[in-house]
Design goal:
Elements lengths: L20 H7 L6 E4 H9 L6 E4 L3 H14 L5 E5 L1 H4 L2 H7 L4 E5 L5 H13 L4 E4 L1 H9 L4 E3 L4 H33 L4 E6 L4 E4 L1 H6 L13 H4 L3 H8 L4 E7 L2 E12 L2 E11 H16 L17 H14 L5 E4 L6 H10 L8 E5 L5 H9 E2 L12 E2 L1 H4 L4 E5 L6 H13 L1 E3 L6 E3 L3 E6 L3 H6 L5 H7 L2 E4 L10 H16 L9 H8 L6 H15 L6 H8 L21 H10 L4 H8 L3 H12 L1 H8 L2
Parallel strand pairs: 1-2, 3-4, 3-5, 5-6, 12-19, 12-20, 13-16, 16-19
Antiparallel strand pairs: 7-8, 7-11, 9-10, 10-11, 14-15, 17-18
Helix pairs in contact: 6-7, 13-14, 17-19, 20-22, 21-23, 24-25, 25-26
């Protein structure tokens, strides 16, 4: 080992004692390089042994030394030397020069049986000394014939070990690269397999095995692709020259198949094929759409968050819950501000599409040209100012989910035809594109107008009207569901007070609620919400809620007719005032709230009670 170039690498040398190649293959350990000699080396090469091989050469000096020993031990006795062609070539001429009677016998396969048969043939030929490997010498001894085993010299061994070290280093680096490449390809989403120039499978990644429904990788490598891939459609693509990109049937599914040829110096040396399951493509597309567009397109409300007490509204919500269990188109009819989008979001949240996008668009908010590009999307260069790379439309973004088209009555007639086709065919085409994109959406439309009147006036397509009007939901205005006003007011005021950081609670009286219920609220819940926000912001501790309500309502007070015959009870009675003060422990604000009057009004009443003339007039004394 002193003659070897020293390095810092640790080497482990293991020896295998084997008479033939089959024994080597049976007992071969996991190694980075193998040293073999003669027929064993050639046979391992022929069998495509997966480990790099280094040949332990039988040098000319080794043969000369063997022949000199033969002459010394068996002078004049005819001998046979067994070995592969590279070992025994030129032995006869060398024997003549050394005055030795030796005949070479060439081994072709170097198998156990061949070696024994060759020894027997040499004995029949009159040879009385056998020179060869372990098996040959063993058979010669069995036949009672002297034998000599061919040995390799010390220098030959050291040279082979030095070469093996270099090969091992290179082999290890290449194997690490191959392992990285194999791992990379095995983790690829697409199935990949390679076909060599003979039509045999030379590579398969893990995805290809799964998609093609095969078993272990090793079972298919080196076999004809036509045998491995039992699919006429797939084999047809593989048999044709050129590149192909098709969707074909395969067993119980469909595959997207792409084939490219491998060219070397202009000649085809094989091909690489990628395969994808059709269901995988659909799943990937859905995930991509959700990843790219889910942000900002989700339902924020559900039926559980709705504040309702009125019987008419309770019936409406029950009907909406029934609609949520279907995929039919819905038209929600109601005045502005009644909560049409809130109901539509709740329907989406309660449907089987709840995990996908809820996309809302106000059809009256955009001009026709922008509305079209928003709904259908566009490709790059479709029009001046089109974004680079194009843009997905709202119909695409809503795929597998729900699209809410508010104020559907305002959609231009020119777009109504395209919308009708989307509802009929469930497919769209981006502006400037020729590619059809299939979509799966549910449409909820909303309007505050009578679409039948618009159809008769020629402002709304009749066929689109009937396509949309599968299910209809009518939301009553707030003035027709006055029972909802008190809980809505309490919720809105509490929310806005918390938002502004105010912690003082506001207590409204029955008369306050009656006053609010008596208002027409033409803007419905939206108007009530805005009113409550003003009230919550302007209210200050010590202020009378009732007085502030009257002030914000423009000085209006409730009348018996407006309240449905339920006018507030008289509050000028001395006993009622004193009772309210006693119940509130002298707190005038709480006493005024209990009486349904302002603190100023209570103060006036108390002043009157202190005035003897006033008390006399009240008591009639």
């Amino acid at each position: 080992m002193k003659r070897q170039v020293q390095d810092n690498t640790h080497y482990l040398l293991e020896t295998i004692v084997a008479a033939a190649t089959d024994e080597v293959l049976t007992n071969a350990p996991e190694c980075d390089v193998m040293i073999a000699r003669g027929g064993t080396y050639l046979d391992l090469c022929k069998r495509s042994f997966p480990v790099p091989l280094v040949e332990l050469i039988v040098s000319g000096s080794d043969i000369v030394e063997m022949l000199l020993r033969l002459r010394h031990n068996y002078s004049g006795v005819p001998a046979a030397i067994l070995g592969t062609q590279n070992m025994v070539m030129g032995v006869e001429q060398l024997g003549e020069q050394l005055s030795v009677d030796v005949t070479p016998y060439t081994l072709k396969e170097n198998t156990y049986q061949e070696v024994r048969q060759t020894v027997e043939r040499a004995v029949r030929d009159g040879k009385r000394v056998i020179i060869g490997g372990k098996i040959g010498c063993q058979r010669a001894r069995e036949l009672g014939i002297p034998s000599m085993q061919i040995l390799s010299g010390r220098d030959t061994f050291w040279n082979a070990i030095a070469e093996a070290k270099q090969v091992a280093k290179i082999s290890l680096a290449e194997r690490e690269k191959a392992l990285s490449l194999q791992t990379l390809l095995d983790n690829a989403y697409e199935g990949l397999f390679a076909i060599d120039r003979n039509g045999c499978v030379s590579f398969l990644n893990a995805a290809a095995i799964r998609i093609l429904q095969l078993s272990t990788r090793e079972h298919y490598l080196g076999r004809k692709a036509a045998e491995v891939l039992s699919s006429p459609a797939l084999n047809r693509i593989l048999s044709l020259s050129g590149e192909y990109d098709e969707i074909i049937p395969y067993k119980n599914t469909h595959l997207s198949v792409k084939k490219v040829e491998l060219l070397m110096h202009g000649a085809v040396v094989g091909s690489v094929v990628t395969v994808l399951n059709a269901s995988q493509i659909q799943t990937t597309e859905d995930k991509l759409r959700m990843t790219l567009h889910h942000k900002g397109h989700s339902a924020k409300y559900s039926f559980d968050q709705m504040i309702i007490r009125a019987p008419r509204m309770l019936e409406c919500v029950q009907e909406a819950k029934a609609f949520a269990r279907t995929d039919s188109n819905i038209v929600i009819v109601g005045e502005s501000g009644t909560g049409k989008e809130l109901v539509s979001q709740s329907i989406h949240a309660a449907s089987r599409r709840s995990q996908n996008n809820f996309v809302a668009l106000n059809c009256a908010a955009l001009p026709e040209n922008l509305l079209e590009s928003e709904l259908f999307g566009y490709v790059e260069g479709a029009f001046t100012g089109a974004a680079k790379g194009g843009k997905a439309g709202l119909f695409e973004i809503a795929h597998k989910g729900t699209i809410f088209l508010d104020e559907i009555s305002e959609i231009p007639l020119g777009l109504q035809g395209r919308l009708l086709r989307v509802l009929q065919e469930r497919e769209i085409m981006r502006l400037g594109d020729s590619r059809i994109i299939p979509i799966d959406i549910r449409v909820i439309a909303a309007t505050n107008k009578n679409l039948e009147d618009l159809v008769r006036a020629g402002k709304f397509r009749q066929d689109l009207y009937y396509r949309l009007y599968v299910l209809q939901l009518n939301i009553p205005p707030l003035r027709e569901r006055k029972e909802d006003i008190p809980p809505l007011v309490d919720s809105f005021i509490r929310k806005f007070r918390q938002r502004e950081g105010f912690h003082t609670e506001i207590h409204l009286t029955t008369a306050d609620y009656a006053l609010l219920q008596a208002q027409p609220w033409y803007g419905n819940v939206r108007e009530l919400r805005n009113f409550c926000e003003r009230f919550a912001v302007l209210f200050q501790p010590g202020t009378s809620p009732s007085e502030l309500l009257v002030h914000l309502l423009g000085g209006k007070k409730i009348s018996q007719a407006e309240s449905g015959g339920q006018a507030p009870a008289p509050i000028c009675d001395r006993e009622r005032v004193l009772s309210a003060l006693e119940a509130s422990h002298g707190n005038k604000t709480r006493a005024a709230a209990e009486l349904g009057i302002s603190r100023v009004t209570l103060w006036r009443l108390l002043k009157q009670m202190e005035d003897p003339a006033s008390q006399k007039s009240q008591t009639g004394k």
